[in-house]
Amino acid sequence: MxxxxxxxxxxxxxxxxxxxxxxxxxxxxxxxxKQEIHEFLESNxxxxxxxxxxxxxxxPASIESKSTDNSVDSNSSEEARVESEWTxxxxxxxxxxxxxxxxxxSSAAVSDNNSYEGDGDFxxxxxxxxxxxxHLIWQLNLTHISxxxxxxxxxxxxxxxxxxxxxxxxxxxxxxxxxxxxxxxIEEVIAxxxxxxxxxxxxxxxxxxxxxxxxxxxxxxxxxxxxSTHNLIDHYLPLLGNRDFAQLSRKTKxxxxxxxxxxxxxxxxxxxxxxxxxxxxxxxxxxDVAVKKRNGTWQVELNNDALxxxxxxxxxxxxxxxxxxxxxxxxxIKTSLQEAKWFMKSLQSRNETLLKVASCIVSRxxxxxxxxxxxxxxxxxxxxxxxxxxxxxxxxxxxxxxYMHTPKGIFELxxxxxxxxxxxxxxxCSSTAIRAMIKKLVSDEPAKKPLSDNKLAIILxxxxxxxxxxxxxxxxxxMNIPPSxxxxxxx
Length: 491
Description:
Blueprint: H1 17-26, H2 30-43, E1 47-49, H3 51-56, H4 60-67, H5 77-87, H6 100-103, H7 122-126, H8 132-140, H9 147-158, H10 170-178, H11 186-197, H12 209-217, H13 226-235, H14 237-241, H15 245-252, H16 256-267, E2 289-294, E3 297-302, E4 310-312, H17 314-318, H18 327-364, H19 366-371, H20 381-388, H21 392-399, E5 403-406, E6 409-412, E7 420-422, E8 428-430, H22 431-443, H23 453-462, H24 469-478
Parallel strand pairs: 2-5
Antiparallel strand pairs: 1-4, 2-3, 5-6, 7-8
Helix pairs in contact: 1-18, 4-18, 8-9, 9-11, 10-11, 12-13, 13-16, 18-20, 20-21, 23-24
Domain RNA polymerase sigma factor 54 DNA-binding: 331-489
GO cellular component, one term: DNA-directed RNA polymerase complex
GO molecular function: DNA binding; DNA-binding transcription activator activity; nucleotidyltransferase activity; sigma factor activity
C-alpha cells in the first residue's frame, strides 16, 4: 500500500491534569478520599496536617477557604516576598491532556517498602474475620473428647455451610470416614454430630430446618407449651411455612391464642444459626453533609470531621531560598508545591460542588423533611443539573457513595432521586412516595387477611395513583415485603 499524507477534521474531549484530578476526587467516597489524602501527605512533603485546625475544630469550609489564596501562611512579610520570587515561574495550569511528568519530575514516587497502606486503622483493616468453622473448632479444642471423635468432628465441621447447616448427609460423612477409621459405625458419627449441635450457636451442624429448630427448642423444656411446640415442628412445619393456620389449628387441636403462643415461641428460634457468626466485613458510612432545621429554615452543612484539615508546610517551602539547597532541590520543591496547591484546590472544588448539589436536593425535597417519605417529590439528575448549572454526569458522580445525615436518618444522595407516576389529577407522584404508601398500607392491613398486590393497586388507584399490579409487586419485593400469603398472622 502506498503511503500518503491526509488532513482530517475531528473532535475529541481534552482535559487538563487539574480537571482530571478534580473529577477523580469528586467520585470518591469519604472513606476513599480520606485514604487518598493520607497517601498524598506521605508522598508530598509540602503538604501536612493542620494541627491548629484540629485543635480549634474549625469546619472543613473554613479550612478550604484558606487554601484558595494559593499562598503559604508565613510569620513575616519577608517570607511571603521570598516565596513570590521563586514561585512566579510556576504556571497556573498545565496544557490540556498532559501529565505531571511532562512538565515536572514526579514528587509522588514512593518506594514499595515505604508505601503507605492505610489511614492508621491497621488493626481493623487487617484483623482476620472468623468463619463458622473457626468458631466451632475453637470450641472443639476446649472439649474433652477422644482423638477418634475429634477426627469425626473435624470432618463434620468441614461440611458446615455459612448458614450453619451441613452440605451433605451424615451417611455420606460416615462413608468418607469409614475408609480411614476402622470399624466406624454410623451411630458414632451421629453421636458426635449431636454434640456439635449443642455448640454455640445452638443448632449448627444440622441436616435441615426441622432438626435445627428441635435442638434449639431444648432450651425451652420448662415452657408450658413445649410439647405442643415440639409436635408442631416435628410434624407440621410445612403448614407453618405456608401459614395455613386453619389446618394447623385442626391438626394440633390448639385454639388461636395457644397457637399464637406456639408460633411466637418458634419465632424466637434462629432458622439460620450460622448467621450469628458473620464473616463478612462491615461497611462503614461517614455522612458527607448534615441537614438541620434552624429558625424554621433547613440548612445544609459539610461534615466537620469527615476529612482531615491540611495546609502547606512552611518549613519546606522556605528551604528553596537557602544557599544549601541545590537547583535540583529547588525544582523538586516547586513541583511538590504546585501539586499540593492543585490538590487542595481540587478538594475545595469537590466540597463546593457537594454542598451546592446537597442544598439543591434539600430545597426541592422540603416536603420529605417536613412530612416524610410519602411526600417525596419526583426528581431526576437532569432537574438538579439544570438548576446548579452542571452536567448530569457530574451530578451522578457527586451523588454516588455520598451520604446525608438528616433528622430522619442517613441517606445516600441518590435516594432522593426517583421516577414519577402520573396521578388522576394530572400531577406526579414519585416512586419513593408510592413505596412508602405501600409499606404503610401493609403495616395497617388485617392480620388474618393481608392485602394482595391487586388490592393494593386498587387502593392506590382510589387515591388517584394509577399503578399496575406488577408494579406494586416490584415495589413490594424491592422493600423485602413477602407476598400476602406469607404475611398472614393469627392475631
